[in-house]
Design goal:
The protein is of the alpha+beta class and 637 residues long. The protein folds into 3 domains: 4-17 and 252-342 and 577-609, no CATH class; 76-199, no CATH class; 347-572, Mannose-Binding Protein A, Chain A. Helix content is 21%, strand content 29%. It has 13 helices and 29 strands. The strands form 5 sheets. Strands 4, 5, 6, 7, 8, 9, 10, 11, 12 and 13 form a 10-stranded mixed sheet that branches. Strands 20, 21, 22, 23, 24, 25, 26, 27 and 28 form a 9-stranded mixed sheet that branches. The protein starts with a strand and ends in a 28-residue tail after the last helix.
């Protein structure tokens, strides 16, 4: 922002963090779509398909859709490859670190519901009727209650949720001992269950609200989660290709922010509407370059229509998800411009601790990153250098097989395509997984057929960029040939390019760079770049659903089972220490902000709000005397 040399962000204390959160984050879209179409729509317009964390949020969901649908409404639940153990009581604040996974097994069998006997866990068929142990935390005291009659696991869950809080979770040795003392020697149901459902936004929630007849686990991978009107909004599963209305998570937050502006030019009049509009427009432009969440930013105005202002303090109202306010903080604090806050080059962190693909994904995310995404050959070379000489077999990257196949262009450079150009030349039919070009029209063709090809060469200009090969090859070989001798197989982005390729191809049926596969990156960003080992087909029915760099193929990629343990590569953007000044105004004059209990609680709230951003290791900076907050002198207005 020209003429402004110093910006300090001051969080004004005009609202407490939890109060700033919109009360209803859910938006019902009544236009019927398939589950995957609904997912794409929600990611474009809001954040994602709805995730439901607990019964409070479920109540909000039911209020949102009441009377507005006829059959079913998609939510963000869909099938994954692997089954995971969960506790029925889904409240995240109920569990300290490690308590969700404190499972003392006597025997873990192939069943999907958990029981406890003599202080140990085992599994049983969910349809067997046992006594149960409920947990009741409603009166501020944790109580474990033995149920009066045997029930199957699902009915026991409903009973405990109706009359208490939920089926019991066993978080530590003391709770195992408590349930053992009241179970009267019986095998009893507790809140442990296993399923293969995950949420679209990749966050963790163990809440399940299935209707009574729904099985906790089935082999059908083509099912996605819905609210069912016939079951009073309880959940069921439907084929993902069906079309239904859907529920998006549009969680946003309202932030009241003070901005201190000291102009370099003393003649700059901050009360001038044109100056204020120019500052605001600059903020909007910089934020729009990096924010994926919807946002609004505007000056807070007084009743007379003027921008609220005290001396050099102007007041902003910013409405966005938490990740957006972090961007605005960085912009306003002068710590970096928005464009420089975003890493221009991707870096990778090699972790030489063998883990399964899912364990590696969790590890990277716990550190504030994700498993590696690789956008192009430049990043592939960075990845190869990161692992060079450090592994013996395979290194996990973030590519995983999804349920549906999508069309991509082999040339992955995002800057190569204007809006809409990726979808200009998509075929109507999709019987095969590679695309040929014949007289200006696309056609799907088996990838191992041998055809001539048209390569694209970015080092040349005009018509000379499009090169017809003189040898017939299958599609994977043609792609490798074009990458080795030119840039890549050609894309067809618009009508002008179509006409040039029509002339270059000489009425032959030729390979172009479009292919279809089911692979998706762990961080949900889009990249069509693929670097498979020689001989790897574009798509197979192979159940080895995760991808690794292979030493035997000089770092080229291959499919291997997700449950194998290998080192792995995390995305890593580098970390920079930022200092941000915070002003907090309290209505309670007796509140001591330097009480460790108080400032630890404030920090805990900030960390929770920032948990889905790239901000990590947040902590207070203390003065030499140990204080965090310093009371400002009264400046007399």
């Amino acid at each position: 922002m020209e003429g402004i040399t110093h910006l300090i962000l001051l969080i004004s204390g005009l609202c407490i963090l939890p109060v700033c959160v919109a009360q209803n984050p859910y938006s019902l879209v009544t236009t019927p779509k398939t589950w995957y179409e609904a997912q794409s729509y929600c990611r474009e317009k809001c954040r994602d398909l709805a995730t439901i964390d607990d019964m409070r949020e479920m109540k909000t969901v039911l209020e949102t859709v009441e009377g507005k649908y006829d059959d079913a409404v998609w939510i963000g639940l869909h099938k994954a490859e692997t089954r995971t153990w969960h506790w029925s009581l889904a409240d995240k604040d109920f569990y300290k670190e490690g308590e969700r996974d404190y499972l003392l097994w006597d025997e873990e069998t192939g069943f999907h519901c958990g029981a406890q006997q003599k202080g140990k866990l085992d599994t049983a068929s969910c349809h067997i009727k046992y006594y149960s142990v409920c947990f009741d935390g409603r009166n501020g005291q944790d109580q474990f209650i033995f149920t009066p009659e045997p029930l199957n696991w699902t009915d026991a869950q409903d009973y405990c949720r109706t009359y208490h809080t939920d089926l019991a979770s066993l978080r530590n040795d003391a709770e195992y001992l408590k349930t053992e003392k009241i179970d009267n020697g019986f095998r009893v149901w507790v809140g442990l269950f296993r399923d293969d459902w995950v949420w679209s936004d990749k966050t963790y929630s163990s809440l399940r609200y299935w209707h009574a007849e729904h099985k906790l686990y089935s082999e059908d991978l083509e099912e996605c989660g819905v609210l069912l009107k016939s079951k009073s909004g309880r959940w069921g599963s439907r084929p993902c290709a069906e079309t239904h209305p859907f529920l998006c998570n549009c969680r946003q937050q309202n932030w009241s922010i003070k901005v201190k502006i000291i102009p370099q030019d003393a003649a700059l009049e901050l009360n001038e509407p044109a100056v204020q509009d120019a500052i605001l427009e600059q903020m909007r432009q910089e934020l729009s370059e990096t924010l994926t969440d919807p946002f609004q930013v505007k000056w807070k105005k007084e009743p007379n229509g003027k921008v609220e202002k005290i001396n050099h303090l102007l007041f902003l109202t910013f409405v966005t998800a938490m990740g957006g306010v972090v961007r605005l903080i960085l912009l306003l604090s002068g710590l970096c411009s928005l464009s420089s806050c975003v890493p221009q080059n991707r870096y990778y962190l090699f972790v030489n601790k063998p883990k399964t693909w899912y364990e590696a994904q969790s590890y990277c995310r716990e550190k504030g990153f994700d498993l590696a995404t690789i956008d192009d050959m430049g990043e592939m070379e960075i990845g190869l250098k990161a692992v060079e000489g450090k592994y013996k077999d395979a290194v996990w990257i973030g590519l995983q097989k999804e349920l549906t196949r999508r069309w991509h262009w082999s040339l992955a450079d995002k800057d190569f395509y204007k809006e809409g150009e990726r979808d200009y030349f998509i075929p109507d039919e999709a019987n095969n997984n590679c695309l040929t070009y014949t007289k200006g029209k696309p056609s799907t063709t088996p990838c191992l057929y041998k055809k001539y090809s048209v390569c694209f060469d970015g080092k040349k200009h005009g018509r000379e960029q499009y090169v017809l090969t003189n040898v017939a090859m299958d599609w994977p070989v043609a792609r490798d040939y074009c990458r080795a001798h030119h840039t890549d197989l050609t894309s067809v982005r618009n009508e002008l390019e179509n006409q040039i390729i029509l002339e270059v191809s000489r009425n032959l049926t030729v390979w172009i760079g479009s292919f279809r596969d089911p692979w998706m990156w762990s961080d949900q960003t889009y990249s069509s770049f693929r670097y498979w080992k020689e001989g790897k087909e574009v798509w197979t029915d192979d159940t080895k659903n995760c991808v690794a760099m292979l030493e035997s193929s000089s770092g080229r990629w291959g499919e291997i089972p997700c449950n194998e343990a290998h080192p792995f590569l995390c995305n890593y953007a580098g970390q920079v220490v930022k200092f941000i000044k915070v002003r907090i105004s309290s209505e309670d004059s007796e509140l001591d902000l330097n009480d460790p209990v108080v400032y630890d609680d404030i920090l805990k709230q900030l960390k929770q709000e920032l948990s889905n951003t790239n901000v990590t290791n947040l902590r207070w900076r203390k003065h030499p005397d140990g204080r965090v907050f310093v009371k400002e002198p009264n400046r007399g207005g």
